[in-house]
Design a protein that fits this description.
The complex is a heterodimer. By secondary structure, chain A is an alpha+beta fold. In chain A, 35% of the residues lie in helices and 26% in strands. In chain A, a hairpin with a 3-residue loop joins strand 4 (131-142) and strand 5. By secondary structure, chain B is of the alpha/beta class. Chain B is built from 13 helices and 18 strands. In chain B, strands 3, 5, 6, 9, 10, 17 and 18 form a seven-stranded mixed sheet that branches. In chain B, helix 11 links the parallel strand 15 (303-306) and strand 16. Chain A binds chain B through residues 83, 85, 173, 203, 206-207, 210, 213-214, 217-225, 227-232, and chain B through 5-7, 17-18, 20-21, 23-26, 53-57, 72, 90, 92-94, 97, 105-112, 124, 130, 133-136, 144, 146-147.
Amino acid sequence: MQHSSTYSPSLRDLDTAGALTLGGLSLIFAATRRPMVASGLALTSGALLYRRLNGNRRQVSGRAETRAALGGQRGIHVREAVRLEVPIEEVYRFWRQLEHLPQFMSHLESVVEEPDGSRSRWVARGPAGLRVAWDAEIVTERENHTLAWASLPGSDIVTAGSVTFAPVRGGRTTQVTVHLQYAPPAGRAGDWIAWAFGRAPAQTVREDLRRLKQWLEAGELATAGLASTGGAA
Amino acid sequence: MKAVRFYGTGDIRVEHVPDPEILNPRDAIIKVTSTAICGSDLHIYGGFIPTMQSGDILGHEFMGEVVDVGRDVTTLAVGDRVVVPFTIACGRCYFCREGLWSLCDNSNPNAWMAEKISGYAGSGLFGYSHMYGGYPGGQAEYVRVPFADVGPIKVPTGLSDEQALFLSDIFPTGFMAAEQCQIRPDDTVAVWGCGPVGQFSIRSAFMLGAARVIAIDRVPERLAMAAAAGAETLDYEQVDVPDALRTMTGGQGPDACIDAVGLEAHGTTLDAWYDKAKTSVMLATDRSHALRQAIGACRKGGTVSIPGVYGGWLDKFPLGAAFAKGLTLKMGQTHVHRYMPQLMTRIAQGEIDPSFVVTHRVTLDDAPAMYGTFQHKHDDCVKVVMRP
């Protein structure tokens, strides 16, 4: 696991310039759009994050500090759910093929899986044309039940999360629950910046899941087209 | 193409805009042959509907000819003559499957706006604000129709445009209003508002077995149209409506009451003037005089059915009276898809000819003037049909 610390040129430039605030912003954007993830529970993802931070970023975060971040005081922590009238196998199959995710996660540009399916390369769009990239691995995979994910050591983005698939209403409906955690470099400041841009992380994930639902249920994403906004287009 | 566009309160213009195109696999493009102005369009015209934007194309009652279909539309072909529901529904989500088509989960791309107001969002609608999806409307030469494989239905060749057009909204809306009353033989139904939806509510109530329908309005032509359907009529400027209803029902009250007026109610009583004052200075959004009166007049254990549109917050809503009498309140956008086939059959069998309601036949170019005529009920205007 000698990783893959794949910094994107733009981020490196930013770091070099010491533009911490802007870097934090791009992380938030990347993070909130990052859907993949997995870890079934907060506990799981928390533990993963803890290990990543503790093991690989010791110079940045001490144990207590990391624990505090994962406790929700400083990191981003999102939990959103959606129900679909689609068989659970179909939903799981769609999500497990990570290349599909950018179809409904608006700030993701691409996800490319390695042939063996264990690792993947993620590229996300940030504000002002920034791009952020990182590598991730699947850490838990229970078919039609749970998919859990974590960024690899050395990535720009330190994150973990999960998506669970559960039958409801007697199995006629599938409930998808997404749980994400991010350790942001800029803490609350980063959150504030995201807010200032009008996109709270939870709302962002909610809209992503709405598109997932439209895609799998209706077979297309609802749009009024350009003309629909009339003079305000 | 030509289209009727909204530019602000009382400001409607006919302008040239780009033709719509297929954007999604389940789309169709319809060449409009007939389109109507709805009473609910007047709520937009009057500035009561939030999230309208300058340049939005109006109209949600339309029919026409299919001129293009997306690759997943197998139920329609170019050349088909169809009438289109004003509610946009995917046909596959939980709500569509439950028959609650106007509550579709997947047709409103701006669901987040409606969620901020209502908690959860209803379906997208044609030409009815960005909160309802921002879809360009049908008062135009062409319209893009999403989910065309489940919405539009074909019109039998024997029926005229004017006989089929109102399946898009006001006939199903009046029918659902009456159906919600759970009418039993011998029931008396009172209907507030004798505009187009009121007229179809009256006729639907009779179709569903009501013994008596009492129609309430102040416009003589509209009351005459109601009387022609067999309703007894009350002019609210001439009589005390609650008192009259009490007497006419032997002191018991109507079994069901339909509010086919909605958020711009007029009235002559103290509460109506209070509403007018408060909405005019933006302290309230909706004038609910008709609904208050319906709740007050309804018999104990009765049903108040609300096809009239409400958009925001009501002031002085008599929930205590509704509670005390154990009323059932039913409301909501019409589940048009649910009613279209059966009502098409009733029309084809000659049980009803919906064209009775049409008073004005004009072209799209006349839209700006006709919005004013309809709003002020000038020239005995009840329903305007435009042919592009």
